[in-house]
Design goal:
The chain has 73 residues and is mainly alpha-helical. The chain is 62% helix and 0% strand. The two termini are 27 Å apart.
Length: 73
């Protein structure tokens, strides 16, 4: 989400760092759930790729980028 007028930059409840951390925590949970049975289906991989695009595509994180590239391939 873009903060066009810097209204949320100093908010206690809403800021980009907090949302990024929550999204990263959600990614860990999703990945753990998908890998729990030892099999990653094509449908699960596509879901995770789409989730990354929607939630973490803006991050310049090497782990997220590597995971996204592998899922895209």
């Amino acid at each position: 989400m873009t903060d066009l007028h810097d209204e949320f930059a100093n908010s206690r409840f809403f800021n980009q760092d907090r949302m990024d951390r929550r999204s990263a925590d959600a990614l860990v949970g999703l990945a753990a759930g998908i890998a729990a049975d030892g099999v990653v289906t094509e449908l699960e991989a596509k879901f995770l790729r789409n989730w990354l695009e929607a939630n973490l595509a803006h991050l310049d994180d090497p782990v997220v980028n590597l995971l996204y590239r592998r899922l895209s391939d």
